[in-house]
C-alpha cells in the first residue's frame, strides 16, 4: 500500500514545484503620484495592472511614464502625471490707432485734434493645460471685442507759403474729396469732406458756380443690387455750401452743356439769377463682375434750376447693347452745346439734342486682354465743324 502511494506523492510534489515556478514574481516598484513617492510590492505583469492593484485611478488626460502596457521589471519607476485642462478668460486693453488726415486749408505743419483716442477692451479665451498643478501650455481659442477702440484723428496742415496768382476757378479731386483753388494757388478750400467721390463724374459748370460730381453709395444701397453711385451738386462760389443730391443714381459720365452763343455774354460774375443749367449724362447698372458696372449707353439731358434743384430730365438716346458695350462710351460736347460726339469700342458717332444719332466711322476693337475696354476720346474743332479721334487699326 505504501509502495503505491509513494509515486503519487512524488508526482504531487513535482506539480507543486512547477506551479511555484510559473506563479508571478513579486516586484518592488517606485511609484510617484499626487506629489508622493513610495515603494510598493506587486505581482502585476504590466504598469497598468500594477496601478489598478494599488488603487490608483487615472483620469482621461492623465499621463503615465512608462506607458501602461510596459512589462514590469525589478525596481522600475512609475510616474503618474495628473493632467487637467481649464478654459480661462482674460480681459485686456485694446490699443487705439492714430490716423492723420491732411488738410490743405490749414497752415503748413499746423496740427489739430479732430477726435480723441480711447482704448477698447478685448476678451481673450485660452485653453490652459496643467500637469501636477503646474501650467504647461496655453492656447488662444477665441477673441471677443467688448468695447471697440476709438481711433485718434489728427488734422495736419499742408498749405504752403506764398502762392502763385491764378485767374478763374480750379477744382480738383484728391483722396475722395473735391477741392477748390481761387486767386492764389495756396488758398485751397475743401468742397466736400465725405471722402467717397468715385471719380466717374466731376464737372464744373461753365460759369464756375456749380460742381457736379458722383459719390459712392453707403449702407444698404451699396450692395450688388443697389445703384452704382449717385449724382451730387455743390455751389462753388458760396463758402461752406452744403452738397445736395440730385436724386439721379447709376451714372458713369456726366458733363455740363457749354454756354450757347446767346449765353456767352452771361459768363461773368453778373449772370442773371434766373438762368438754368443743363447737363447730359449716361447711366450704368451695378454688376458683380469686373469692372463693377454694365453701361446702358443711353443719353439723358437734365435741367437744373438756379437754386440747384433738378427741374426735368429728357431722354435723348435710349439704352442699347453692342460689342463691348458693357464698358460704355466716351462723350464730348460740341463747342456750340447743341451736339455731342461719342467714341465706342468699335465706332465713332454724334448725337443731337433732338434725339437723332449718327454712326460716322467703324473700326476693329482693341483687344486689351483685361477687364477694361479702350475707347477713343473725340476732340472737337474750336468752330465745331468736326472732331478728331485716335482709333485702333
Would you kindly provide a written description of the structure presented here, covering whatever features stand out?
The protein is mainly beta and 393 residues long. The protein has 4 domains: 58 residues, Ubiquitin-like (UB roll), CATH 3.10.20.90; 68 residues, Resuscitation-promoting factor rpfb fold (Single Sheet); 153 residues, no CATH class; 64 residues, no CATH class. It has 2 helices and 28 strands. Strands 18, 19, 20, 21 and 22 form a 5-stranded antiparallel beta sheet that branches. It has a 4-stranded mixed beta sheet with strand order 2-1-4-3, covered by helices on one side. The radius of gyration is 43 Å and the shape is elongated. The N and C termini lie far apart (132 Å). About 4% of the residues have low confidence.
- Biggest sheet, in brief? 5 strands, antiparallel
Overall shape:
elongated
Share of helix, binned: under 10%
Give the mean pLDDT. Answer: 85
Which residue ranges are poorly predicted, with pLDDT under 50 across at least 5 consecutive positions?
Answer: 16-23, 264-271
How big is the Rg?
43 Å
How far is the N terminus from the C terminus?
Answer: 132 Å
Tally of DSSP β-strands: 28
Share in β-strands: over 45%
- What's the helix-strand series? HEEHEEEEEEEEEEEEEEEEEEEEEEEEEE
The DSSP helix count reads: 2
Q: Give the number of domains.
A: 4
Structural class: mainly beta
Element layout with pairings:
Blueprint: H1 2-22, E1 27-33, E2 36-42, H2 47-53, E3 63-65, E4 77-81, E5 83-94, E6 98-107, E7 111-115, E8 120-131, E9 134-147, E10 152-159, E11 165-174, E12 177-184, E13 188-190, E14 197-204, E15 210-216, E16 229-235, E17 244-249, E18 251-256, E19 277-286, E20 293-295, E21 299-304, E22 310-317, E23 330-333, E24 339-343, E25 347-352, E26 357-362, E27 379-380, E28 387-388
Parallel strand pairs: 1-4, 6-10
Antiparallel strand pairs: 1-2, 3-4, 5-8, 7-10, 8-9, 11-12, 12-13, 14-15, 15-16, 16-17, 18-19, 19-20, 19-21, 21-22, 23-24, 24-25, 25-26, 27-28
Amino acid at each position: 500500500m505504501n509502495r503505491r502511494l509513494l509515486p503519487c506523492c512524488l508526482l504531487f510534489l513535482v506539480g507543486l514545484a512547477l506551479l511555484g515556478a510559473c506563479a508571478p514574481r513579486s516586484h518592488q516598484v517606485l511609484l510617484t503620484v499626487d506629489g508622493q513617492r513610495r515603494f510598493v510590492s506587486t505581482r502585476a505583469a504590466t504598469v497598468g495592472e500594477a496601478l489598478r492593484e494599488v488603487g490608483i485611478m487615472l483620469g482621461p488626460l492623465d499621463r503615465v511614464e512608462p506607458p501602461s502596457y510596459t512589462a514590469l521589471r525589478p525596481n522600475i519607476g512609475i510616474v503618474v502625471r495628473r493632467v487637467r485642462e481649464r478654459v480661462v478668460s482674460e480681459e485686456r486693453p485694446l490699443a487705439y490707432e492714430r490716423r492723420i488726415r491732411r488738410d490743405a486749408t490749414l497752415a503748413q505743419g499746423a496740427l489739430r485734434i479732430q477726435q480723441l483716442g480711447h482704448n477698447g477692451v478685448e476678451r481673450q479665451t485660452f485653453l490652459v493645460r496643467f500637469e501636477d498643478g503646474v501650467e504647461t501650455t496655453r492656447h488662444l481659442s477665441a477673441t471677443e471685442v467688448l468695447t471697440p477702440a476709438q481711433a485718434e484723428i489728427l488734422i495736419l496742415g499742408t498749405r504752403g507759403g506764398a502762392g502763385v496768382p491764378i485767374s478763374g476757378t480750379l477744382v480738383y479731386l484728391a483722396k475722395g474729396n473735391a477741392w477748390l483753388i481761387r486767386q492764389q494757388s495756396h488758398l485751397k478750400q475743401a468742397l466736400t469732406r465725405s471722402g467717397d467721390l468715385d471719380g466717374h463724374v466731376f464737372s464744373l459748370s461753365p460759369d464756375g458756380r456749380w460742381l457736379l460730381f458722383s459719390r459712392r453709395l453707403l449702407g444698404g444701397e451699396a450692395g450688388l443690387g443697389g445703384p452704382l453711385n449717385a449724382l451730387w451738386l455743390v455751389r462753388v462760389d458760396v463758402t461752406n455750401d452744403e452738397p445736395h443730391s440730385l436724386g439721379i443714381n447709376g451714372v458713369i459720365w456726366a458733363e455740363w452743356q457749354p454756354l450757347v452763343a446767346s449765353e456767352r455774354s452771361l459768363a461773368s460774375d453778373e449772370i442773371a439769377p434766373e438762368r438754368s443749367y443743363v447737363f447730359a449724362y449716361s447711366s450704368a447698372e451695378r454688376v458683380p463682375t469686373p469692372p463693377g458696372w454694365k453701361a446702358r449707353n443711353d443719353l439723358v439731358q437734365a435741367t437744373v434750376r438756379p437754386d440747384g434743384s433738378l427741374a426735368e430730365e429728357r431722354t435723348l438716346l435710349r439704352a442699347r447693347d453692342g460689342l463691348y458695350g458693357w464698358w460704355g462710351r466716351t462723350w464730348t460736347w460740341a463747342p456750340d452745346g447743341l451736339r455731342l460726339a461719342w467714341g465706342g469700342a468699335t465706332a465713332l458717332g454724334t448725337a443731337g439734342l433732338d434725339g437723332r444719332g449718327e454712326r460716322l466711322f467703324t473700326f476693329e476693337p482693341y483687344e486689351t486682354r483685361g477687364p477694361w475696354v479702350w475707347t477713343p476720346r473725340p476732340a472737337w474743332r474750336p468752330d465745331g465743324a468736326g472732331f478728331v479721334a485716335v482709333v485702333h487699326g
